[in-house]
């Protein structure tokens, strides 16, 4: 399983990197829209019929189109940030809140806002990025790869450190396989390495980069924990078997869906 997971991950990484650096902004936004739509489909399909899921997906596509308007783009980022904060409280109180989590209205709204914020954050970088990138030396495509690395490093370090040193459970109420040692290793090493990279290769101070990356790295754990919590509510292992060794697209994107809007929102505020 680990070998299959690594091979699939490498193929995904190579393909995604090639697409990010080779296609135009408009086509890249279409690609991200397709990815977000498939992920949302998986998220909704575990609870709803094909007809209801398709109806919600049509509304989602219309909302993605509204991201062309800066007001709605920012609004989707704000709604995503609010959903992330609510999710943190839900994770802490799980499983006492199972009945609330099963509520179809909550299910739809949380899925929509998280996926809209994910799409809106990348759309913002592609078409409104001058508002936050002025003064920095990295371009839009490099920044997208950099943000992807936050979740990749956090997941990888936590996984291998947990396997090697893990003894104490962490967030066992939503994810029994996570360990405190894995989390601590990831939250110490990942932001530090990425802050050094940002300081050396981009025009951004080490202290500012570390502040942003510490916050966003912690939130990436919430994204993964949110997906684990949802899977425990409906008692499934993965949202689909689309990606060998990884499960569904949402299983692979869970932390990225939180990291992208969190990172862009923090840059926007700063």
Describe this structure in words.
There is one protein chain. This protein has helices at residues 2-22, 25-45, 50-66, 70-93, 98-101, 104-128, 130-133, 140-165, 180-201, 206-234, 249-269. The longest helix has 29 residues, at 206-234. Helix 4 crosses helix 6. With 270 residues, the protein is mainly alpha-helical. Helix content is 79%, strand content 0%. The protein is globular, with a radius of gyration of 18 Å. The model has no long low-confidence stretch (mean pLDDT 89). It has one domain (2-269). It contains eleven helices and no strands.
Offer a concise description of the structure.
This protein has helices spanning 2-22, 25-45, 50-66, 70-93, 98-101, 104-128, 130-133, 140-165, 180-201, 206-234, 249-269. The chain has eleven helices and no strands.
Mean pLDDT: 89
How many helix segments? Answer: 11
- Structural class of the secondary structure composition? mainly alpha
Instruction: Return the domain count.
Output: 1
Unreliably modeled segments: none
What string, H for helix and E for strand, traces the elements in order?
HHHHHHHHHHH
Strand content: under 5%
Radius of gyration: 18 Å
| Spatial shape | globular
- Helix proportion: over 70%
């Amino acid at each position: 399983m680990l070998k299959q997971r690594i091979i699939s991950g490498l193929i995904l990484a190579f393909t995604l990197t090639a697409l990010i650096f080779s296609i135009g902004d408009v086509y890249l936004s279409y690609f991200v829209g397709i990815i977000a739509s498939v992920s949302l489909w998986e998220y909704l399909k575990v609870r709803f019929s094909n007809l209801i899921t398709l109806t919600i997906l049509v509304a989602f596509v219309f909302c993605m189109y509204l991201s062309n308007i800066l007001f709605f783009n920012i609004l989707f980022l704000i709604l995503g940030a609010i959903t992330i904060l609510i999710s943190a409280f839900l994770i802490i109180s799980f499983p006492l809140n199972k009945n609330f989590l099963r509520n179809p209205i909550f299910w739809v709204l949380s899925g929509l806002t998280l996926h809209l914020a994910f799409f809106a954050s990348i759309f913002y970088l592609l078409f409104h990025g001058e508002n936050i990138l002025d003064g920095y030396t990295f371009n839009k495509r490099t920044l997208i790869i950099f943000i992807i690395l936050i979740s990749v490093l956090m997941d990888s370090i936590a996984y291998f450190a947990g396997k090697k040193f893990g003894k104490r459970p962490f967030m066992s109420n939503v994810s029994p396989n996570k360990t405190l040692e894995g989390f601590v290793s990831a939250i110490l090493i990942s932001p530090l390495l990425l802050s050094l990279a940002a300081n050396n290769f981009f025009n951004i101070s080490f202290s500012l980069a570390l502040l942003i990356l510490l916050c966003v790295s912690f939130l990436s754990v919430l994204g993964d924990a949110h997906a684990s919590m949802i899977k425990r509510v409906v008692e499934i292992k993965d949202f689909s078997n689309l990606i060998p060794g990884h499960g569904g697209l949402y299983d692979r994107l869970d932390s990225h869906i939180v990291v992208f809007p969190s990172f862009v929102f923090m840059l926007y505020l700063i």
